[in-house]
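Hi V.,

Quick status before I head out on leave. The structure for the redesign project is tokenized and pasted below; the design run finished overnight.
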């Protein structure tokens, strides 16, 4: 199934910059909880970040690896913070890749 156009209906995995639909993420979390398994990314199997700081650090690591999706996410975050110049720079770099 394709992902929803609405970004609020999907979850960003900071470890590999993949998106997963909210329902699939919920089903994976239930499977992990019922099986008493550690929460991991369903794509790359890295452990889920425990803090917002760890999430940001992983996302910036993806940006440093020239991941265009991660750059677009950071650009959008900067835009919503009012930092339009940096947002444009991240979006431009992502588009060039």
């Amino acid at each position: 199934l394709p992902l929803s156009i609405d970004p609020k209906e999907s979850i960003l995995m900071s470890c590999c910059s993949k998106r997963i639909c909210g329902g699939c993420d919920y089903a994976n979390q239930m499977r992990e909880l019922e099986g008493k398994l550690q929460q991991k990314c369903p794509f790359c199997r890295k452990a889920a970040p425990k803090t917002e700081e760890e999430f940001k650090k992983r996302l910036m690591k993806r940006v440093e690896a020239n991941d265009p999706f991660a750059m677009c996410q950071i650009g959008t975050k900067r835009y919503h913070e009012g930092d339009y110049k940096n947002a444009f720079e991240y979006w431009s770099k992502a588009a060039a890749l």
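Above is the designed sequence. The chain has a mean pLDDT of 91.

G. will cover questions while I'm gone.

Best,
W.
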